[in-house]
Write a structure and sequence with these properties.
By secondary structure, the chain is α+β, with helices and mostly antiparallel strands. The chain has helices at about 5-25, 35-40, 85-90; strands at about 45-50, 50-55, 55-60, 65-70, 85. It has one domain (about 5-90). Helices cover about 35% and strands about 20% of the residues. A hairpin with a 5-residue loop joins strand 3 (about 55-60) and strand 4 (about 65-70).
Length: about 90
């Protein structure tokens, strides 16, 4: 199989597809379920160019803009700064 995408882009696409599937299944539950997207994304990695590649972390700024940052950068959470995404934000 030939893949035209970069390894990191392919990983991002596959993890987003898994989160969409997860969201669909969770929506069938009669009770509310919370999923931390960043914790879910941390479960995936691939080897590329001699290093481990992980999907980027997602955060939401005060004005509800999505900020996608490499997971190697420290994520700060404060009342004034970006907050982690959860499955409700993803949907």
């Amino acid at each position: 199989m030939n893949v035209v995408m970069e390894k990191s882009s392919h990983l991002n696409l596959m993890t987003m597809a898994l989160l969409q599937t997860c969201s669909y299944v969770i929506d069938q539950m009669p009770t509310e379920v919370t999923v931390d997207i960043n914790k879910s994304l941390q479960a995936f990695s691939i080897e590329g160019d001699g290093e481990s590649i992980r999907p980027p972390s997602w955060t939401k700024s005060e004005d509800d803009m999505v900020v996608i940052a490499p997971s190697t950068l420290p994520q700060t959470t404060s009342l004034a700064g970006p907050v982690p995404f959860n499955m409700d934000d993803y949907c």
